[in-house]
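Changelog note: in this version the structure field was regenerated for every chain. One regenerated record is shown below for reference.
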Amino acid sequence: MSSTMFLRSLREATLPAARNCARRAPLNAWRIPRTVKPAHFYTSTSSKAALASEIPAQPTIVLTTPSPEYLEEEELDVDLIPPDQVKLVITDRAAEQLRSIATRENNQNAALRIAVESGGCHGYQYKMELAKARSPDDYHFTHPTIQPANLLIDAVSLGLVNGSTIDFATELIGSSFRVDNNPQAKGSGCGCGVSWELKD
């Protein structure tokens, strides 16, 4: 499949809801440079209730953890989070959207990759993109019942989003994947919806 068709599938699933912040961190060289940065919306009481109804009864499944040998070879100084300490949640609607993407791509390994980069108005920002395969430093997650619903998060980024809920929501200004209820984030973040500040 051509890169144009590949990215078109991602755009159909996730329309960015905000402009990038004035300052952007450079993309990692090993990442695909064409990215979509959905907004990080903070929900109202009613939408929080709707979000709760989408949370599966069973925990998110950790399929694969990063390779310690690769991390050592790349001199990445990061403490790996054991699978039993990962508290990430993939909502049912996010999983349904991921399954739809895999079906359209005719690729059961198609996944949403989430990374945290330095930059933006508040110091950190989320980066989301569609990935065809897992990297050696990725955690690989899936929904407990809706599959394929692949989510990839690198070892460094997981420490900054562990405890969050990965959701897919439709707003008046568009539909997008988003990171909700991140316990590592301070306050409501930037008005642009992309940048956020780390708790002290």
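Spot check on this record: The radius of gyration is 16 Å. The helical segments are 3-13, 45-53, 68-73, 92-105, 155-161.
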